[in-house]
Write a structure and sequence with these properties.
The chain is α+β, with helices and mostly antiparallel strands and about 400 residues long. The chain contains nine helices and 20 strands. It has helices spanning about 15-30, 40-55, 55-65, 70-85, 120-125, 140-155, 165-170, 265-270, 305-310, and strands at about 35-40, 90, 95-100, 100-110, 115, 135, 175-190, 200-205, 210-220, 225-230, 235-240, 250-255, 285, 295, 295-305, 330, 335-350, 355-365, 385-390, 395-400.
Amino acid sequence: MESPRQAESGSFNTNFFCLKLANNILLKKAAEDGSNTVISPFSFHLILSMIAAGSAGRTLEQLFRCLGSTSLEEMNSSASRMIDLALPVIDGRNGSAIGDPDLSFANGAWVAEGLKLKPYFQEILAGLYHAVAKEVDFANKAEQVVAEVNAWAETATRGLIKNLLTTEALEALTDNTALILANALYFKGTWAQLFDTSRTKTRVFHLSDGHKVHVPFMTSLGFQRYLYRSFAEFKILKLPYKSHHPAREFAMYFFLPDARDGLKDLLEMFKANPEYLNIRFDLVEEKIPDFWIPRFRFEFELEASEAMIQMGLDLPFDRMKAELTGMVYGSTGRRLFVKKVFHKCLIEVNEEGTEAAASTAVIIEMQQMQSMYPIASFVANHPFMFMIREDISGVVFFVGSVLNPLLNN
């Protein structure tokens, strides 16, 4: 048996910080409570890029290190190419969208009354992220603002992400809140080879703790060939999505440990080597007579600030050291800092393909002169891993794990 090796991937990849962040959360949840998990490194990368565009000094340098950039120009160029990957390709002759999967990506900004965006930051929000900043009253209309952000995320994700901002977010909004920055990603892909629903059967799924559940499993005709490879202690299966655009090749990868309780070890390996999610695995086409994949649908949410701080991205969250100085006028000299990072994903995998969505919202607050508040946290994971990646660029859109396909059905 062999291990994956580094290979040519594409002109740019999802950066290691966001992949490692996702993997750390998967691993923590697998060890903690056995929950299914799905996270969007793509969404995290672009929300951090947006924060970096309004940062300076050591905070900007730390964000550059996490994002794998050395300058604003390089970071903005990478963000622009990533955003282009998540937008529909338009046929210049008739103006209609062409190719599968169906993708969309949107950004939003809500600014406190009395504050004004600085010109460069406003230009970046509007020009690169296509976000129009709206003035809102965080102090007196917090419930209305939360409802508005939630409605925006729900609309942008075709109804999949509901209640991105929860009670915890509502409690975090005060008269010191300066900004909410958010993004929303939608993905719907059809398998290049559809599964036959008449062949779907209920079979046993073995949980990590030794228990069993009965779930619907999808299969195909025995003569079909799949991209597959067996490595040391795990196997990889690739299922491509239907596509009519030569510059885009989306696929879903399944990482199956050989041992029934082997997911934790597999996640540990990816934690130590996050670049594995960016490489080509040199898969080969093979017939797989015994081929079964469970159907599943679940959603996952977390407040990610503590996870980011633990990984070394601490300065944006430090009310005494954060240098988010390029965002707004009108904060009367008070330092801005990131207070909360809310992330929510949903994924459904069935015989036709995959539908998934993600949304991330960042609450940015103005420093108070005296009191210091602790940073709250909430993080998440399951028996196989998966990711959704655009293979030509190497950008990872979703990473997740499934411990029990019946959860959150």
